[in-house]
Design goal:
The chain is built from five helices and eight strands. With 198 residues, it is an alpha+beta fold. The protein has a single domain, classed as Gcn5-related N-acetyltransferase (GNAT) (Aminopeptidase). Strand 1 and strand 2 (14-18) form a beta hairpin. It is globular and about 45 Å long. Keywords: Transferase.
Length: 198
């Protein structure tokens, strides 16, 4: 069984560090940038629920089903948001990359590309995962487009899969990248990242 333990991953533009309670105030500042928690098709914590979300993620980490990170911009140390390995299957091993959100002003700066490169590299080359999964709301067009730009392929749609905070039912789109596809995906991410490096 693969040990999927907390780790700090440092890239060109961002560093992913293990989530802790001390990140609370910086994450509240990040979520207020663009009020990303108000997007109806996502489950981003509000400033008022941030402490509970940190507790939730850390409890899942303690149970072995999640490895939560905070994304910090290398240039100025600013916290951008959160991301995780979730749905962890340590026996295979297999992980899902998800529960990701970033401050609005970081959009298009290459930091999310760098974070995905870090997470995928560690999953495939560090943990030896044969596949990495992504899931999102069918109606979350920006998220679906971003996942498809990574080179992930759609596995299918889980209809009426989750109930959203507003009571509506979510159709969940499931994507994956398998190990044989990783070299091509990695080359694409490195190429995209170079466009953001001076």
């Amino acid at each position: 069984m693969t040990v999927i333990a907390p780790v700090t991953l440092t890239g060109t533009l961002v560093t992913l560090e293990p989530l802790g309670h001390a990140h609370h105030d910086e994450l509240v500042d990040a979520v207020r940038d663009g009020d990303v928690h108000q997007l109806w098709y996502t489950a981003v914590p509000s400033p008022e629920t941030m402490a509970a979300e940190i507790d939730r993620r850390l409890a899942l980490a303690e149970a072995g089903s999640m490895l939560p990170f905070v994304a910090r911009r290398n240039a100025d140390g600013l916290v951008l948001g959160m991301t995780t390995y979730m749905g962890i299957d340590a026996a295979l091993p297999r992980v899902e990359i998800g529960s990701t959100w970033n401050r609005a002003s970081a959009s298009g700066t290459g930091t999310n590309v760098d974070a995905k490169l870090l997470l995928l590299t560690h999953a495939f080359e560090g943990l030896g995962c044969p596949a990495v999964e992504f899931r999102t709301h069918w109606l979350n067009g920006p998220s679906r487009a971003a996942i498809e730009r990574l080179g992930a392929k759609m596995d299918g749609i889980l209809r009426s899969h989750l109930r959203m905070a507003d009571g509506s039912l979510r159709d969940t789109v499931v994507y994956s990248i398998i190990a044989s596809e990783w070299p091509g995906v990695r080359s694409g991410l490195v190429h995209r990242l170079r466009k953001h490096i001076a």
